[in-house]
Amino acid sequence: VHLVESGGGLVQPGASLRLSCKDSGLTFSAYNLAWYRQAAGMERELVASISMAQSTTYAECVRDRFTVSRDNRQSTMYLQMNNLKPEDTAVYLCHARRGSREFWGQGTQVTASS
């Protein structure tokens, strides 16, 4: 199993980014997926999740700005991030879970700074 995130970068506040998390090795559609983030010196926090049935949840601080989606045929999960704020700066990690089995990607850095 190998989850690989991409799409991070340095942007100005107010800009948009789209993160991708591509899998190799999972039966992708059988896993509940999520994006987490971890800022420097802070605990990891859940940003958004999408279930096998495509139901979604969001942290209150990103609701109405971020959208999570998945394409099971491409074995890829996405996070569309609009109107980025400096407080969104963090390493973003994708997570897959099925029962007691869970996997993490290595993360991609997102920095929103002027």
Question: What is the CA–CA distance across the termini?
Answer: 37 Å
Shape: globular
Secondary-structure element string:
EEEEEEEEEEE
User: What's the Cα radius of gyration?
Assistant: 13 Å
- Largest pleated sheet: 7 strands, mixed
Estimate the helix proportion, in percent: under 10%
Structural summary, described in words:
- The chain is mainly β and 114 residues long.
- The protein is 0% helix and 54% strand.
- The protein has no helices and eleven strands.
- It has strands spanning 2-6, 9-11, 17-24, 32-38, 45-50, 56-58, 66-71, 76-81, 90-98, 101-104, 108-112.
- The strands form two sheets. Strands 2, 4, 5, 6, 9, 10 and 11 form a seven-stranded mixed β-sheet that branches. It has a four-stranded antiparallel β-sheet with strand order 1-3-8-7, with no helix packed on it.
- Strand 9 (90-98) and strand 10 form a beta hairpin.
- It is globular.
